[in-house]
Each structure stands twice: as C-alpha cells, then as structure tokens.
Amino acid sequence: MEFIVLYGKHPCVKLLPGVLVGLFENGARIRCKYDLEISTNIKLKLLIDTAVLTEEPDVYAKVIKKFAAQENDFSLRFTGIPPKRLKGLRKVRQSLA
C-alpha cells in the first residue's frame, strides 16, 4: 500500500510506501518507515500486483495509535470509505486472514 499525508485539505506531494499489517471493519494497522503523529490524516492507495487501484475511490483514515512494541507501527481509523470501496477492502481483508 501507499499513502499520502494530508495537511488540512492539502495533500503531501508524493506517495509514501507502507505495509498493510492488519485490516479491520473500521480501520487498519500499517507499518512504514515514517514517524507519523497521532491525529495525522492520510489517504490510502492499495496496491494489488504492484498496480495502484486508481479506478477505486480513495479511502481516508486518521492515525489513532502508535504501537510501542514495533517502531513505526500505527493503528488507523477509517474516516471516509465510499460504498464502492467496501467490497475491495473486504477482499483485501480476507487475503490477510
């Protein structure tokens, strides 16, 4: 997966790489090499077979927790998931199980 950090309504200039560690009904757990602050808003881009799912609507999330046991492991709460995207997220969640 890749993500873009949002500053207010303005996105960061580039996509940042990360790893989707877990996916839940209302959020996700990610790992990345960047130190994200709690309450940071991000826009997620899921990758399947190294292709960005550009035809799918964006998924927005907020960083709600940083795990102390793992450096740069974060818990996200989804703040915006378009109905079209729910089906794709469920498929990804099944593949992680």
Residue share in helix: 10-25%
3D shape: globular
Rounded to the nearest angstrom, the radius of gyration is 12 Å
| Uncertain residue segments | none
- Strand segment count: 10
The pLDDT mean sits at: 82
- Say what oligomer this is: single chain
Would you tell me the structural class of the helices and strands? mainly beta
Largest sheet: 8 strands, antiparallel
Q: Strand percentage, roughly?
A: over 45%
| SS field, number of helical segments | 1
Distance between the termini: 17 Å
Secondary-structure element sequence?
A: EEEEEEEEEEH
What features would you describe in this structure?
With 97 residues, the protein is mainly beta. It contains one helix and ten strands; from the N terminus they run ββββββββββα. It has one helix at 83-96; strands at 2-7, 10-11, 16-17, 19-23, 27-31, 41-45, 47-48, 51-52, 59-66, 73-80. The strands form two sheets. Strands 1, 2, 3, 4, 5, 6, 9 and 10 form an eight-stranded antiparallel sheet that branches. A two-stranded antiparallel ribbon has the order 7-8. It is globular and about 30 Å long. The chain starts with a strand and ends with a helix.
